[in-house]
Specification:
alpha/beta, Rossmann fold, 2 domains, seven-stranded parallel sheet, six-stranded parallel sheet, 37% helix, globular
Length: 378
């Protein structure tokens, strides 16, 4: 079977939830099957560490597109889809709605289309009115032209089913690897951090992540022996990201930028508390990663986080910096020993997700049922 993958910046060592998802999923599929997997990547995100990786049964097709908030995904998806038109794919697997705008082109081929819906993009504050309309149009095209839809979140599935009749779909959560804690601490010490004496947040510098009110809440806690560390950055400088960096500096918050490998391992390994303050998520891989290190957590009480089914006192009212401050103070006063292994293995297991995805691929390719009419607007 020959499979094309469209909708990711690429992997390995490229920051992003979809990028992590694709890395974990396709490397496993390739190791368990004889599928030929072709992943379309974006050249601006490639460097000496990831340009020429060697994975079994996976090869990469790289296109240059300028880094641009509005046109990068559009152009890359167009180039990738046109290339896919001539490759004789059995399946083309699209990730999220923006790339799906070009799905109808592939109706000229034998390829079956699988669509993984990660999060609802057109509600995000970073987009202007035109971009939101485009993403909504792309959603309609993606859902009505897919042969099968994979939702990575029950929340996204439930929202979509309010507006569409979706006949062939399944929820397959994001997964996470069980972490091995670092035994060295040189990196965190280089940042002026002590073990178990800092609070951690991870994500892109977008309004939806709520890092600004996390900083305000941390300031209100006023416990001098703890520091706040935020891992991440922005792909495209925005007014919000510039203000956030300035605000963080004013309040002695440590910003690491994008980190990976041993540096990221150390940051997770020695954190006292992980906080996810997001207003919107699909299913947050960063929270699952924190849980894989058995870190005590605080999560905003949005539906995407609630579906992970943490303890009641692990949640706080989203956007309320006063409640968050009190929750942080309470958590820091405790010595909670957490063990999430059972829930991670049961619900967020990449090996199970991989096997179920292979089953979907096999069933879709062998199905003779007509494509049209499977998904209809209500």
């Amino acid at each position: 079977m020959k499979i094309g993958v469209i909708g990711t910046r690429g992997f390995p060592n490229i920051q992003g939830g979809i990028e992590t998802h694709c890395m974990e999923l396709y490397t496993r599929i390739a190791s368990l099957s004889d599928y030929e997997i072709i992943v379309y990547r974006r050249k601006p995100y490639l460097n000496s560490t990831n340009k020429n990786p060697n994975f079994k049964n996976i090869r990469f097709v790289d296109f240059f597109v300028p880094k641009n908030k509005y046109f990068e995904t559009f152009l890359h998806s167009f180039f990738s889809t046109i290339h896919a038109l001539f490759q004789g794919y059995d399946i083309v697997h699209y990730h999220n709605t923006g790339p799906g705008f070009f799905m109808p082109i592939l109706k000229l081929t034998k390829a079956k289309i699988i669509f993984s819906y990660h999060n609802i993009s057109y509600t995000q504050k970073k987009w202007n009115r035109f971009a939101k309309r485009f993403l909504l149009s792309s959603e309609i095209i993606s859902i009505t032209n897919s042969d099968f839809i994979i939702f990575v979140s029950e929340v996204v599935k439930n929202e979509i089913e309010k507006h569409y009749v979706v006949n062939k779909c399944k929820v397959l959560f994001n997964g996470v690897r069980l972490a091995t804690r670092s035994v060295t601490s040189e990196y965190i010490e280089s940042l002026g951090l002590e073990k178990q004496k800092y609070i951690l947040g991870v994500g892109r510098f977008l309004e939806e992540k709520g890092f600004d009110y996390l900083i305000r809440a941390f300031k209100k806690v006023n416990i001098q022996e703890y520091k706040l560390v935020i891992v991440g950055d922005t792909d495209y400088p925005t007014n919000y990201s510039k203000k956030l960096k300035s605000f963080a500096k004013e309040n002695d918050v440590i910003l690491t930028g994008y980190i990976r490998g041993e540096e990221l391992n150390q940051i997770f390994s020695f954190a006292k508390l992980f906080v996810i303050s997001s207003f919107e998520e699909g299913l947050p891989i960063s929270l699952l990663e924190a849980m894989s290190y058995n870190i005590d957590v605080l999560a905003s009480n949005i539906p995407a986080n609630l579906q992970i089914d943490l303890n009641q006192d692990d949640y706080f009212t989203v956007g309320d910096e006063n409640v968050l401050a009190e929750s942080i103070k309470r958590k820091l006063s405790l010595n909670n020993e957490r063990n999430y292994k059972e829930i991670l293995i049961k619900k967020f297991n990449w090996d199970i997700i991989c096997t179920e995805t292979i089953n979907i691929f096999e069933n879709v390719v062998t199905s003779d049922s007509p494509v049209s009419g499977r998904n209809r607007l209500k």
